[in-house]
Amino acid sequence: MQIMADETFDLAGCLNRVRQQDQSASRALVEHLYPLVIRIVRARLPRRVAEEDLAQDIFLKMFTRLAQYQGVVPFSHWVSRIAVTTCIDQLRAQQRRPELRWADLSASQAEVLDNVLTDARDETPSDALAAHELVHKLLGQLSPADQTVIRMLDLEQKTIAEISQFTGWGQSMIKVRAFRARRKLQKLFQTLKETEKS
Amino acid sequence: MKHHKQSWQKLVATARAYRDPREAAAPYGFAVRVASQASVGRAAGTWGLLEKFALRGLIAACTFSLVAIAFGYSTASGEHDDEVASNDIVGEILNLS
Description:
The complex is a heterodimer of chains A (about 200) and B (about 100). Chain A has helices at about 1-5, 10-20, 25-45, 50-65, 75-95, 105-120, 125-140, 145-155, 160-165, 170-195. Chain A is mostly helical and about 200 residues long. Residues about 1-5 of chain A have low confidence and may be disordered. Chain B has two helices and no strands. Chain B has helices at about 1-15, 30-95. The chains are: A mainly alpha (about 200), B mainly alpha (about 100). The interface between A and B is large, with 42 and 36 residues.
C-alpha cells in the first residue's frame, strides 16, 4: 500500500496543523491519502458516479469528523472505514441492476466465464481484465453489503477481523453475509448457464 | 455447489491478477479544491452553531415578548377597568349631588 510506504510523511504533525485550520496541511493530507482512497473507490465505484466526486465526498467527511478521531486505530484504517461506508451508502442509493444474462456479457467476458464453468483451460494474464469486469458485474447483482463482504474476502483477500475493522460490522454478521452472498452467486451462475443454453 | 465454488475461486483468482493501470496520485487541483471546501464547511459549521443559538435566542425572546404583552395587556385593561370604575364613581357622586 502506497500510504504505508510513504514513511517520510509526518502524519501526526500534519493532523495537528489541519486541526488548527492550516490549509496547506489539509492539502498535503489529501494528497497523501488520495492513493488509498481512490483504490477503495475504484474497487467499489457505483454506476453513474464519477470517482473524483466520490473521493471528494469521502475527504470532506474525513475533515468534518476529524475531531472524532481518537487515535485508537491507525489513521489510514479510520479513513478507509469512511471510504468503505460512503461507497456502500452510494451503492444503496442506486436502483437495483436488472438481472444479468449471458447476452449482457462481452465476448471476452463470456469466454472467461465459459472457461471457468467448464474447466476448459487455465486462465491467461490477458483474461485478467475480462475476469475483473465479470466479477464486478456479478457482484453488482448482490446487495451493497454482500458485495462489500465478498469483494473484501475473495478479491482483496482480507480476513474476517479486517473486514470487521473496515466496516464496523460484527464478525458473525460478516460470516452470515458471506454465506448468503455465496448462495446468491451460485444462483447467478446457474441463471447465466441457463440463459447461455437458451 | 462444489463446482460453483471452484468456478468462482478460479474467476476471482484471474480477476486478482488484474492491475489497474490508472494513475493513483491526486489529479491537479483536487487537493486545493477539497481543502478549501473543507475550510468553508468548517466555517459554515461554526456559523451554523451560532445560527442555532441565535434562533433559540430569538424564539425565547419572542416568547418572553408575547408573555410580556399578554400580561401588559391584562394589566393595562385592568387599569382601564379601574378608570371606568372610577369614572362611574364620579358619575355616581355627580348623580348623588
